[in-house]
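*** Protein under study ***
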Amino acid sequence: MGIQQGSIALCRYRLLGGEKRLSLGRLSDLIEPYKAKPLTLTGLHKEEVVGWVRPVGLESATLDLPPDAPWDLTDCQVDDGFVLRLRIERRKVPAALLQLLYKQEFYAETLRTGKTPGPTERRELRDHLQAELMGRALPTLSHVDVYWRDVAGELMLFHTGKKVRGLFEALFNNSFSQHLGLTLVAVEPPLIGLTREQWEDSQVASETLGRLSLATPAAFADQNQNRP
C-alpha cells in the first residue's frame, strides 16, 4: 500500500535515542546495502525478497529514469523528513505442481535404481525440485511507503498488516536503527496517550514504556528481537 493509492491505512512509530539530525551522506551510506536489486526472472531461490526502491510522486520521480537508475536519500527528501519506499517480491511454487513432479521423479528414480528411495533421498529429491521450481517462479510485487520525520523522531508506515510490518521493521532496523542507536517503537493503543514531552524525555519515556510493557508484553517483544 502506498501514498499514491486512493485509500490510506497507516501504523505510527516513534524512534527513541540516537541523533536528532542525521546527515544525508550518512543515511545514504546506510541505506545502500539494503536497496532492492534489479529484478530478475530466473535464478532467484528465495520466497520473499525485501529492499528499498526510489519513491514515487516526488520531484525526482517525474524524470524519465529507468527503474535501476542510481538514487540516494536526496531523492527521498520532503520538507521535514523522507519518503521511503519498500518493495516486496514474493515467489511461490504451486503445491500441486511440486507434488506432481515429485511423484514423476520418485518413480523414475525407483526404476533407475531398482529400489525405493529412502527418507533422505526423498527429502533431497523434494528439496531439489522446490529449489528448481522457485528459481523459475515469477515474482509478484507490492510496494509500501514510509514517511520518516527524522528530527521529530516520528515515522508512519502506510500499511497495517502484521506480516508487512514485520518485514518493514526488520529492514529499517538493519538499515538504520542498529547503526544509529535508535529504537523503533510501534505506537500501539496503550501508547497513544503519551504526550510529546514524555516521548522526548528519555528517562520518562523509558520508565513509561517499561510500565506499559508489563501490561502489553507482546507489543514490545517484537521490537526487542531486532535490536543489536
Q: What stands out?
A: The CA atoms of residues 146 and 213 lie 25 Å apart. The first helix runs from residue 24 to 31.
